[in-house]
Every structure is written in C-alpha cells, then in structure tokens.
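The protein record passed on below.

***
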Amino acid sequence: MIGVMVVDDSALMRKIISDMINDEANMRVVGTAKDGEEFLEKLESLKPDVITLDVEMPKLNGISALKKMKKMQIDIPVIVLSSTSGSDAMITMECLESGAFDFIPKPSGQISLDIRKVKYEIVEKINLAFEQKISGHKTKEAAKETIISLKSGNIPNSARVDALVIGASTGGPRAIFEIITKLPEDLGIPVFIVQHMPEGFTKAFSERLNLNCCLKVQEASHMQPIETNNVYIAPGGYHMEIGTDRRIHLNRGSSIWGVRPAADKLFTSASEVYGSGLISVVLTGMGKDGTNGTIDVKNNGGFTISEDKSTCVVYGMPKSAFETGKIDSVMPLDKIVEEIMKLIRKSRG
C-alpha cells in the first residue's frame, strides 16, 4: 500500500485529491496539511511514501517547503501541483530543479470537465514515484547498462554536425537542465527540445533554462528562423517540426503516443533537413516517443544517443529507442554532453 500525504491550502482541493487517491486499491492518504509549515511538522510522524505538494500556499510555499525538506535530508518523492499562471509555473520549474519528482497542472475551475484526466495523471505519477523510491535511484556502482563508446567512423569525417535534437518526458526537466547548462556558448549549432509538458509551462521552462545557460533558450514560435547557438523548446500543445526552409513549424496535429509535442515529429523532420549532420538524444521518460524518430535519424545518416538506465527516472523512452537497434551510443546523463562535444569536435577535424 502506497502512503500519500496531500499538501494544499484549499480544503476543497485536499478533499478532491484525497478522494482520487483513496479510490485506488493500492494507495491511501496517510495525512494532509494546509501549508508548508504544517507539512514539515507532520512529515516525520506520518512517514508517507509519496507527497503531493501545492506550489502556492500561505506561511511557507511549495518551493520553500521542498528546500527545507531536502535540508532535513528527507528523501521522499514529491509531485508538485501547480496552476498555469506565470509565477506558479516558474516556481514549479524551480521545484523540479530542487528535486521534485514531477508536476501536474491543478484541476481547473470547471473541475468536472477535467477530473478524469487529472485523476489518471495523479495516480500514474504516484505509482511511478513509488516505484522509483522502492527501487532506489540507481548509481553507476549499483547498476550499469553496457555503455557503447563512440567508435571511429560512426560519423563520416566529411559530415559536419549541424543540429542537436532532444526528447524527454518524466524526469526530463532536470535531465535537460543538466545537459543544456553544460553546453558552451560557441556551440555552433542550434538545439531543439521536446519535453512532454502541458501548455502554460514550457515558457517558464525555457525562461528558467535561459537564466542558467550560456546559450540563448526560448520557447519556439511558428515560422521562427533557426539560428546557431540557440535552444528552441517546443511549446506545450504544439508539435514542433523543422522545415526545409530552415524555419520552425508549429502545428496542432494529432497526438502521437498520446502526447503533443512529440519527439518523433521533431526527430523525423530534423533528420530530413540535416541528414548525417544531426545528433539525436532520447532522455528519461515513460512510453515510446522518440522511437520512430530515432530510426529515421539513423536511417538518414545521423548519430543517435540514448540515456543509460542507471540515470533515468523512468527507463521507458530510452529503452524503446535502444531496442530498435538504431542507437549508436548509450550514456549515463553526466556523460552525454561529453559525447556530444566529442562528436562535434570530430566532425570539424
């Protein structure tokens, strides 16, 4: 049985979320709190397996409570609930950087219209967070996938690296932060990212990254010209594709694997434009998005990387990509930038 603590300043939201959780056979609410101070007071006695944490609360907000919890060296997965307002979305990104497992947009004012979707997300992410907790976050010493090192000749000497595409889902914001903040300002290529994230949050995500990066990071816009040393984040709710006109094309086409934006759309379109000059990276996440795109990148001569199981929050997307047989290099998160830079340097002689 998964014990969950629900933290929210709204009595109505505490009841709605608690009812969702208690409806499930494998989880129950062990306690609630109306603000960050009460949350910290009750935390050690309740000993929950997973916490749902509201972002905006009186006395002590979500990010402050999360940081204090980490200082207390309490390692319990936290799922943040946030509205899509600009300030809340930005605080949510800070929570993810500070160690939150994932986040969920709070139910809207018209709760009956999206209650089923919200319940599905909450239950799914509680289960994922609990799985990660009981398995332990794997270290390099504890578990390693075979790391396929870069081999001479995987990229022809004549092929110049022209672009980098990245796809991620659960656990992705922290993984992307780890990669993008380590890339140099003179990278010399554009970077395109699909992070599964709802509308209202990708702008805050890009702004947060931009504050911490040497490269310019922005939420992409339709028909935007592509420039080197720029990082483009696909907006929530839109597929992002690279056009032969070397501009970004956004659309609200059908979801792929149940998501929009989808990494497959980005990877496939970019592979058709950049060919052997493209590097693709599939990071942590649930599902199979990025699988078909990885095949297309490799078939068009590009170089493909997937994150090693040992550093994934959820080993779903990278596993599916790896099983295609089209992955050139499997790397733990902290080695991916080194691999990318090795490829760029090699391609430029």
The two ends are 57 Å apart (CA to CA).
